[in-house]
Amino acid sequence: NAGVMQNPRHLVRRRGQEARLRCSPMKGHSHVYWYRQLPEEGLKFMVYLQKENIIDESGMPKERFSAEFPKEGPSILRIQQVVRGDSAAYFCASSPPSRPSGNTIYFGEGSWLTVV
Amino acid sequence: DAKTTQPTSMDCAEGRAANLPCNHSTISGNEYVYWYRQIHSQGPQYIIHGLKNNETNEMASLIITEDRKSSTLILPHATLRDTAVYYCIVRAPNSNSGYALNFGKGTSLLVTP
Q1: Which of B10, B16, B46, B103 could serve as A43's disulfide partner, Cβ 3.0–4.6 Å?
Q2: Closest Cα of chain B to A45: distance in Å?
Q3: Which 3 state secondary structure label does DSSP give B78?
Q4: For residue range A22-72, what is the model confidence (pLDDT) as tens digits?
């Protein structure tokens, strides 16, 4: 059973370009989360999605960032008009459908974005 | 979700047991204790979780005190590859953030030869 798959693993973009990060959850998982880790800082929650729905985007910057998890295909984190401050590691995680006892979240290996 | 307190850093000799403490004195009855670790330049890795009983798996053991206000993660025979930042997270199944994990600063464990 493959884990959470993220691509690209490394991405370089010039200021003003768009970055698209993709995440395929583990098989059977319908919940996806995106986290960001700035250099030398901790992991920060960005957004939580279920298929075709954004459930919680309280950690997403108000501008330039968007996320989707379509009915078919991977989840996409999109950053428009990137700036140097967007340089970070972006981690995707997934979990199975909710259970009253809670569910374990599993992470991918991350996508490292560098803005030059 | 309840807040956790962990030591900033710890050292452990290779082959010895690493005991990582976590305080969560405001934990609620339905909140689980989760442990993750992050090895440098890798994604967070799930280790173990529990509610009130002690738990053991192939990676570690989790000891939760009877009052549930603190817990200890035990790596029975630490290796150099266990050097990582270890996060103790308290999480309720029905949190408003949809079960998302809130990572604090964790404990930076250094395993030495």
Answers
A1: B103
A2: 7
A3: coil
A4: 999 999 888 999 999 998 888 999 999 998 899 889 999 999 999 999 999
Give the residue among A36, A105, A46, A111 at the shortest CA–CA distance from B36: A105
Among candidates B43, B96, B103 on the partner chain, residue whose Cβ is nearest the Cβ of A109:
B43
CA A7: distance to chain centroid?
10
Inter-chain residue contact B100 with A95, CB threshold 8 Å: no
Q: Tell me, what amino acid is at A114?
A: T
Measured between CA atoms, the residue of chain A closest to residue B44 is A107
> Is B97's pLDDT higher than 70?
no
| pLDDT, mean of residues B6-12 | 97
Q: How far apart are CA B72 and CA B4, in angstroms?
A: 12
Percentage above 90 pLDDT, chain A? 74
Q: Is B42 in CB contact (< 8 Å) with chain A?
A: yes
Concatenated DSSP letters of A13-47: E-TT--EEEEEEPPTT--EEEEEEE-TTS-EEEEE
Distance CA A110, CA A113 (A): 10
